[in-house]
Amino acid sequence: MAAAVLHDVGYAPHLVDTGFHPLDGARFLRAVGANERLCAIVAHHSGARVEAAIRGLSDELAELADERSPLRDALWYCDMTTGPDGQRLTFDERVAEIERRYEPGSVTRWFLAEGYDELEAAVQRTTRRLVAAGLAIADQPM
User: Fold this and answer.
1) Of the N and C termini of the chain, which has fewer Cβ atoms inside 10 Å?
2) Residue 82 pairs with which residues in a beta bridge?
3) Which domain holds residue 60?
4) In total, how many domains does the chain have?
């Protein structure tokens, strides 16, 4: 739950250091004594590895482990199926919404193209887990 609430804390203007919000947020959380797992989940949320490589921040991101777990997938799922105002979106709707907000050629658009498959796979894995747990309907768009 804490990761879902805090994953975008790095967007806060007074926390910006590298300009890469997953890393800036994770470093802030680490500095205030947050649990290392929480810091790592925040650092690696929603395909951050791909964007870090584009930004030349792979070594910095590697300071925190990427656990590649169902928890990580669930955070990515939440991030990639929720709009900026909290509205429920399908994965494809969320991708389209992000594309509308960022200019072609921007780092975010580049990252989205490069990381699309990894993001979609996390959403699909989480959807399967939700269906298996009886928390979602198999043919419902996610």
Assistant:
1) N
2) 88
3) 2-132
4) 1
